[in-house]
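Hi C.,

You asked whether I'd gotten around to modeling the 227-residue construct. I have! Everything is below, sequence then structure, no commentary in between.
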Amino acid sequence: MRILIVDDEQILLDQLKRAFVEQRYLVETALDGEAALDKLFDNPFDLIILDIMLPKRDGLKVLADIREADISTPVLMLTARKEIGDKIKGLDLGADDYLAKPFSLDELMARARALLRRTGSQSDSVLKIGELRLDTRSRVVSRGDKEIELTAREFSILEFLLYNKNRAVPRFSLAEHVWGDAFDPFSMSNFIDVHIKNLRKKISVPDQPSIIKTIRGVGFVIKDEER
């Protein structure tokens, strides 16, 4: 499942992203309201964690914009404000839950899980390209009738590429998603290539070109076979 976290506090944003990634969620982040809207209008998400106090466009305006655009993704609002008026306004605009800062990370995670259970996934849990299928819920990968066994990192790489199907994925973005803050571009630069090589071997069909293409100087892309 995909989560968008929007907050202008970089330390908190990194902490929340790390917590959700450890639970195997696919996480995108944004530091301001305009960046959040760009991501929301480009891709489907299953949950939005949205701070009210944001630069460029505050969280309440972002919420109003997405509800006006008929985006029904559940929204968990965050704020340092204690005024009851902000809470009421957020709920009136279509927020699904509300949490005031400072908050317990365990409580945030529990509320997020509750919203995801209540609404169900807004995006298809099965990602596919040709005969290759990846189920984000059961975490099963198969090609035709054959199930493919992947390591956790190979699964994470394939999932990220499939979510961005037909779009170039920069090497650093892929590394950041798979290894998070633990990735060191100087000492671990070949890790991506090793994992991509192993992944290609596992999902490829003999005598057919790999569906994972390398874009020199950029990164990787996975394309529909008919393209």
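If it helps when you're writing up: The longest helix spans residues 105-119.

Thanks,
B.
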